[in-house]
Amino acid sequence: MAVDKLVNVALRTDTFDLGGLRLSSGDGRRLELHTVIDPLQLGGERYVAEPALVPVAIDISRTTGSGYALRLRFDVTLIGPCMRCLEPASPVIEVDAREVSQPGEIDELDSPYVHDDGVLDLHAWARDALALALPNQLLCRPDCAGLCPVCGADLNAAGPDHAHEREPDPRWAKLSELHFE
């Protein structure tokens, strides 16, 4: 006898029709959706979001008129090279972004992610929100020492005793030509 198994598969949501929620002014709803975040290029290096299908929480509130107040939250691991030592890095980035879409009001209240037909571009919003939440540097660990500027050795592995003899200052080179008898 074959047993049917229920498989929990998360569906990808790139766009979402806000009008389909049929919210009245002051009403709100929280949604748990999944979207894909395209890889980011930072400093010529490629960084990929993990998991591939990112679970996101969206709080949607209807404002007066035909507007919405939106909040997007998710955590994602960004996989790519450390910006100091080039070893693999995988920092966890917490994203908490807000948008207001109040069509017909001032431009600052017109979200680029909510289209005129009331469709939310979740895919673009999640990627842009991640880019804005990034730290100044993506590191393999908070105390990464980086690479030696002289020989290129990984200072995390070389340890604190790694050193080079300093080159003489070229401004004093003529003094080495003086000979006292």
Key features of this structure:
single chain, 181 residues, mainly beta, 7-stranded antiparallel sheet, two-stranded antiparallel ribbon, 2 helices, 9% helix
What is the global morphology? elongated
What's the number of extended β-strand segments? 9
| Low-pLDDT sequence parts | none
Tally of helical runs: 2
What is the multimeric organization of the chains shown?
A: single chain
For the terminal residues, how far apart are their CA atoms?
106 Å
Question: Mean of the pLDDT scores?
Answer: 88
Q: How much of the sequence is in beta strands? A: 25-35%
Largest sheet: 7 strands, antiparallel
The secondary-structure element order is: EEEEEEEEEHH
Rg of Cα set = 26 Å
In short:
This protein has 181 residues and is mainly β. The protein contains two helices and nine strands.
